[in-house]
Amino acid sequence: MNQIEELNNNMVEIAEKASRAVVSINSTIYSGNFGYGMSPVKGSGSGFLISQDGYILTNNHVIEGSETVDVLLNDGRKYKGQIAGTDPQTDVALVKIPGNGFPVMELGDSENIRTGSIVLAIGNALGLPGGHTVSMGVISAKNRPMPWADFIFEGLLQTDAAINPGNSGGPLVDMAGKVIGINTAIIAQANGIGFSIPISTVKKELDDMIKTGKVNRNYIGISGIEINESVSERYGLIPENGVMVARIDPYSPAYEAGIRSGDVITAFGGKNIRSMRDLIRGVSEMKGNTDILFRRGGSKYRTTIEYRNKREKRIIILDK
Questions:
Q1: At which of 63, 96, 129 does a domain end?
Q2: Active-site annotation, residues
Q3: Rounded mean pLDDT of 175-189?
Q4: Strands (E), 97-256
Q5: What's the pLDDT score for residue 313?
Q6: Amino acid 268: pLDDT
Q7: Are residues 226 and 305 in the same domain?
Q8: What is the pTM of this model?
Q9: Do 207 and 226 fall within a single domain?
Q10: 277: domain range?
């Protein structure tokens, strides 16, 4: 047997074994005014079993708006699945079906996967009958951002393995047969560019999702607008990098630290803030007391925020 035949046989074995744990997910949500012609809107996607007692990983956008979903296993068994956990920020969701003894997929290590590594994308492409679709490709790049989505997420795996509508939520599998990503998106009119959520990121969320149904994250209580020329002109701001506070939750950690709407955050935790992405990353990395630099009018200020304990904060004027 030559190397090509050996590689081919290996991939066939991986695909066959992995497909046993891949499921099709069909959701139904109702649109319109309640009692006045509520019409069902159906969607389909993929997922994969991660525990013998019926927990399934998929994309949040596959099940969003549904309380239950129809789950079809590879062997033809059908179940009503309950939404067990959701995380819209990373587009990850957890579905639970009743029963035990299900085939499962092993979660691998996406952090050490190398660019150029061969991968398989498995899922219910286009919702077509006749079983799952398997496509082969490579890891084209790592740590890709996806700023055009409805959520802000970065660190994605980019692959040229075909990811089509219906594949969302399915696994991206390495040559050891382990899941290294959840297939989540394609770019319209761009062939050969698909994205997967790294499984190492998902693993950090699983305990929270199973226990509470959501992911517990650091929170400071603001939403912001990135500073550009038009924003500077509209609000009379000094043209500079930073994020303007557009809204702040009363009694939130940021509010109690002295930050107000209209302030421009220029540094967080000792790192310059040039975009909302920078600020979100900074908040997610908070471990405790964190310094924030911001402008208000023509003055610079520094304050310290602690994301869990609510207490009075002291603002120090640096210059005017």
A1: 96
A2: 61, 91, 168
A3: 84
A4: 118-123, 133-144, 156-159, 171-173, 179-186, 194-198, 222-226, 243-248
A5: 45
A6: 94
A7: yes
A8: 0.77
A9: no
A10: 222-319
